[in-house]
Amino acid sequence: MNWLREHMRDELTKAPSGDHAQNVVHFPADAAPPRNGTSSALDLVAQAASVIRGIEERAAETEARARALAEAAVEKLERAEIRISDAETARIHAEDTLVRLSARLQEAERELARTQSRLVAAENKLAEAEYQLHAAQVRATQSDKAVVQIEDAIRAQIVGLQRNLAARSRNAA
Fold first, then answer.
1. Domain map of the chain by residue range?
2. What is d(CA 97, CA 101) in angstroms, rounded to the nearest whole number?
């Protein structure tokens, strides 16, 4: 340490300006006597150990924070994986439901087509039946007219026969 003091003293005396003097702290000459080398070395080792302990404490705190962050991240990841699994299950269920509903819809569409086909056939049969009914009504009306004509003709013939019989019976009497 003496050599350092002497070196600094030499540097200060060699300095051309007062700039270096502002950056140097002067210790009084009657300061504590220099310690022996072993004691000084032990003090340095103790200081180094103290610094190392501080570094280790900060490292342990940092490690604890990092571990806590990692555990929190793992928990979030596990919750996210559960949500993903639940969502995947729900998606699969929705797809199954969609497939079943699609099949039911297709069957309903086929049944609707069959029903519409039967309806068209029934409408065609109804139209044919209405046509036949109308034709039958026309024939019935014509038949009624023919019967009336036949009845009239028969009456006319009966009346004619009665006149002939009455005339014959008058002539015969």
1. 34-160
2. 6
